[in-house]
Amino acid sequence: MNKRVVQRRDDGDWEVRTPGADRASAIVPTQAAGIDRARDILASSGGGELQVRALDGTIRQQDTIAPGIDPRTSKG
Has this prediction a pTM greater than 0.70? Predict the structure, then answer.
């Protein structure tokens, strides 16, 4: 499954990372910029799951980027 996580770095910037990867796909100054970049990456690579983490590391938001397959059957 194609997946990207947007999370805050220790230096205050935000990173877009594939789970398990050694390096970030992108490093940006804001969470909003990270979400936009992750959406672009996923859309250009055939879709997948976007996960946004809050400052405390918990999952704040999840979204399926087309043409990915949504694992949930409910809308939202």
Answer: yes
